[in-house]
From TrEMBL:
InterPro entries: Amidohydrolase, Bact_exopeptidase_dim_dom, Peptidase_M20/M20A_hydrolases, Peptidase_M20_dimer. Keywords: Hydrolase, Signal. GO terms for biological process: folic acid catabolic process. NCBIfam families: amidohydrolases. Residues 1-25 form the signal peptide. GO terms for molecular function: dipeptidase activity; para-aminobenzoyl-glutamate hydrolase activity. The keyword Signal applies. This is Amidohydrolase. The keyword Acetylation does not apply. Residues 221-303 form the Peptidase M20 dimerisation domain. It holds the Pfam family M20_dimer. One of its GO terms (cellular component) is cytoplasm.
Amino acid sequence: MSFQKTWLAATAGALALVLAGGATAADVSASKLKALKAETVVGVESRAKLAQVMNDKIFSFGELGFQEIETSAYITRVLEENGFTIQRGVSGIPTAWIATWKHGQDGPTIALGSDLDCIPKASQKPGVPWHDPIIPGAPGHGEGHNSGQALNVVAALAVKDAMVKHDIAGTLVLWPGVAEELVAGKAYMVRDGAFKGVDATIFTHVGSNLQTSWGAASGTGLVSVKYNFHGESAHSAGAPWRGRSALDAVELMDMGWNMRREHLKPEQRSHYVITDGGDQPNVVPSEATVWYYFREQSFDAIRKNWEIGNKIAKAAADMTDTKVDYAIVGTAAPRYFNRPMAEAAQRNIEVVGLPKWSDDEQAFAKAVQTNVGSTKKEGLDVKLKGLKAPEEKPESGGSDDIGDISWIMPTITINYPANIPDLPGHHWANAIAMATPIAHKGVVAGSKVVAMTTLDLLTQPKLLAESKAYFTNVQTKTQKYVPMLSATDKPQVQINAETMARFRPEMKKYYYDPEKYGTYLEQLGVAWPVKQLTPPAQAKP
């Protein structure tokens, strides 16, 4: 018998005795909490089918940032059916919502969050270990954001049952990370007070191991900005001297920024795309837009690089006799996670452990790694990585706007093993496992940890007090949150609307129907376990 099963058997049977008189947030002893967690783990396991259905259904929607219409409608419907009150359209974002459920008087308010959106051009049939899009060119869950809300909903429902049964006072709040791939949602919600009254946040994000961390995280924060240049059109051959090319200004800005990169700190990351370069060659472009991400590791460094970008944009406009303005798309603070919360979560991680992967699942994972050219081909993780302490010098890298929430309250991120290690990221390959038994097992494992950690926060006043003390006396002692949005910045909710309007009619034909099919793999006709692991000659590797 596994350690987890032994623990469950030893504690679940005693639950009726230790909680016979009910429990409140002020008096749950260690023995009572252990038994309560055992019962709640059973509650998660009993909802494994719900986790699978939600995971697969959200995968099938495949919606880009700000356009998570079907996804948000589906999740909120499930929550409403289970007694949650929904506030929609938070911060002027149609797909943003806050779901709340309260039991008893007082008690802590614990929030669970996870992202919703997917990746452009990442459509992929799950369970096929090579590139095989459902719809060529369509978006898809090439990071795995389809899984986190399924995890959180199952965890919340299991905890909700325990709160009612054992009279545990408190409030559960669920919320979505809208447009995280644009890092363009959470900072607006923070600015507008969406998390007022929340005591702590547990955030979940897909990974390949079951782990958490504390302190300053590796990676960066950022400002995402669109620079709009305005010139004068003219006939490109007949009277070019009468034109003022906005595209010339964009190109000059890009050249100026690329020259300046050499003289910025190596930790910075910056990238751009030209989203509007004009209409056709024989018309001098009167309008052009370039979209920048300025990433750095501290609030001051992010703002400094953004100011340099503004200066270069103005210089490019001056050189071309055009005008420039800019619009903030989104911001992300550098992430900083809470130590007492992370340590509590780690204790639960060690109880739950990694899923038991089958030989077929391991063979499939190794095949995917081989087919996409991964440097590591060991398959799925079989050993916990352990609690990650802050590095002396955190590495640079990507951003996540959970950073903004981490600077307004105690926050942790729990990564869960629903994907295959060492894939490219933001890529169709990262969608391959995300509606297979690998993801289903990983979601259930993560849901157990989230449910157990939520119970810790609801029933252990000392833990919550220590978490808040760490937030106040360590994290924010010398560095406070620095908002980068102004009061007038608005979410760019029009982004991706045209793309989804183009692909959604065809994508609807492939939405998962759990009334007819046990899994999305079954609906797509993908056999599991997979027998053919090498791509056919005509398949793109």
